[in-house]
Amino acid sequence: xxxxxxxxxxxVFAGTPDFAAASLQAVLDHSAQNQYEVIAVYTQPDxxxxxxxxxVASPVKQLALTHDIPVYQPLNFxxxxxxxxxxxxxxxIMIVAAYGLILPKAVLDTPKLGCINVxxxxxxxxxxxxxxxxxxxxxxxxTGITIMQMDVGxxxxxxxxxxxxxxxxxxxxxxxxxxxxxxxxxxxxxxxxAIKSGQVTPETQDDSLTCYADKLTxxxxxxxxxxDASVISLRIRGLLPWPGAYTQTPAGVMKIHAAKLLNxxxxxxxxxEITMVSKEGVVVNTGKGSILITELQFPxxxxxxxxxxxxxxxxxxxxxxxxxxxxx
Length: 328
Known about the structure:
The protein is 25% helix and 27% strand.
């Protein structure tokens, strides 16, 4: 790559959620050292949110506006005017982090150094929309950030830089997301420094090692109590905070906000049956082993500890011998 050590890199940043905002902030922090110049930001159009359904700007847009950076919000890049507007920026490089749009080849080829992506997985392990969640659900113990040169494939481009992150036994997708967002900013700066100095060595991905991280659906949150407790525990952690795990009760859907894996073997109980109730939580039997639910939420209620729920109007749903799930 071209050595651009003598002048700041002219950067276009494309991203939308908090994860992307962390990477943008990292670049802005280093812009003060005259290494990088963010000349424009691309983000998804404002979306309705909250009870009033008022239009809300993305975290990336909000950050850009506080730094007086021009913001572009095309629906896509099918319009020639949108592609020309990008070309007119005369960018050296485009950084993409959780943008939410598939970029056509014409866009990928527009910046002088192309487009790079901040991807929340140690590629080629998890390609696709939900790499953080899928890593937790699969029981992975290691993940990280890959800075990747983008091509027309789905997360298939050459790897430029990696930074590892352990997945802790207590991690949810939410807690892992927050650590990876920070790590993404760090990896991005390291990758940019290598690109800027011409020291980067692209590495081709091994397609035989990849998994596809499918987009999450609300339906995935329903717990199947016939599965092993280890599988259920990983799914509960992997689906927090969204879409969240849940189970059926006679009183309606009960959301599960926190749970622990138990290795007990209760052959005399049905799958989904509550086998123990205490202030620590309720123990539910599964296909193999048990789950201790410690925080939950009933319809129309708020998130609470089981100890509080046992004193509430839904306490009858948490009694010994009750069954959770569709069979309830």
